[in-house]
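Lecture 7 notes. Example A: sequence first, then its C-alpha cells.
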Amino acid sequence: MVLKRPFQFDGGEDGFGMGGPGAQESKRFRNAVRDVMGRLSVNDFVSKMEPLLRTVVRDEVERTVLRVLQSSSRPSFNQNKTSGGLMLHFVNKLPSTIFTGGRLEAEDGYPIRVVLMDASTRTVVSSGPLASLKIEIVPLDADFGFDDQEHWSRGEFAANVIREREGRRPLVTGELTVTLRDGVGQLGDIVFTDNSSWQRSRKFRLGARPVQKVSDEMRIREGRSQAFVVKDHRGELYKKHHPPHLHDEIWRLERIAKDGAFHKRLAFHGVVSVQEFLQLYMTDPAKLRTVRESPFVSCPSFFYLVILSFMSTDLMNLS
C-alpha cells in the first residue's frame, strides 16, 4: 500500500500518536481497536473497523477501478487491421519468491492471467479466432530479456526454455496448456519441482507461447513474466504471511525475523502472536517502547504501519 504522506511523531501522550492530517484516522483506529478489548464479536469488530479501512484503501481502489474502466472503454482490436503486432502478456505480478511443490499464483493471491493483446495499442484481442488461442506455459532462463528487450525471434525464445536437471522430474508440471477465452487465459494447477539455485541468475521466469503457429504472415510474440526465485518447500516454514492472521506468530510479519533479536525481545515480554502485538499496542504502548531498540522500529510509524497495512487486509478477509 502506498501512503501519500509520511507518518509523523506528534509527541502524544502515549508516544505513538500520528501528527498531521492522519491524526484523526489514527485516533479512530485506536478507538476502534480498544473496542476489541471489550470482547466485541468479530462482526462487531469488522463493523467498527470498516469505515477506517475504506478510507485507507479508497485511493487505491479508485485508481484500480479507473484503470479498468479506461481499458474497457477502448475499442476492441480488429484482427484484420494488423498482420504482426500481437503479443502474449502476463497481466498480474508473480511473487518474488516461489516454493517448490506449491501451486503458482499471483502476488495478490489470485490466479495468474495471460492475455493476447495488440502490442501497439495494448488492447486485448477479445473477439475472433485468436481470442480462443491455445497457449503453452514454459519455464524460462531469467537472463532472457534481462536488458528489457521486447523483440526476439521464435528461435531465441525456444533457446531460453529451461529443461530439468539430469535425473530430475520435469521442471514444471501441471496444467501447462491453456485455452484463452475472449483473449484472456487463467493459469491452473502449475508447480515447480526444482529450485532455481543452479541457474546463473538463481532465478526463473515463466513464458507463454502459442501451441501452434498461426500463419506464415502473422507471428504472435511470446510472453514472459518477471524473474523470481524458486526455493525448496522446506523454506516455506519461514515464509511471511500476506496477509497475516490474528493467530499467526509475530515473526510472520515483515521485518520481524524468526528468532531474531526483536522477535526474542517481544517473546520475552509475552508478545507471541499478531493479536497479542495489537493488544499490547493498544493497552500498554509504554511497554512496547522498552523493546523497540532496533533502528527500524525507532519511530512510532513502524507499529502503525504493521497493524494498519497487514491487519486491515486480514479484517477484510474475515468479513
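Example B, a different protein, same format:
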Amino acid sequence: MKKKRKNGKERGGEEEEEKKKKKKKKNNNNNKNNVSNENNGRLNSSTTRKKKKISKTKKKERKKGKEEEEENEEEKEEETEEEKEESAYRRNGGN
C-alpha cells in the first residue's frame, strides 16, 4: 500500500522517479567536479580555486594594513618625541 501525502495524492509516481533520477545524476556530476586530485591535493572545481585566491589576497591586504598601522604609530611616536624636545627647549629659554 502506497503512502499518501497531506494533499491526498499518492507517493511514488513515474514523474517522481524521474525527478529523483535527474537529481541523483546532477549530484553525481557535482561530486565528480569536486573530487580531489591525488597529485596536488587541490579540488578541481574552479570556484574553490577562486575562493582560495580571494582569501589569500585578503590575508595579504590585512598584513599590509597592519604594517602601515605600525609605521604610522612609529611616526607618531617620533613626532611626539620631537615636539617634547622642542617644548623643553622653549621652556628653558632657547639655551
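Note on Example B: Residues 46-91 form the longest helix (46 residues). Helices lie at 14-33, 46-91.
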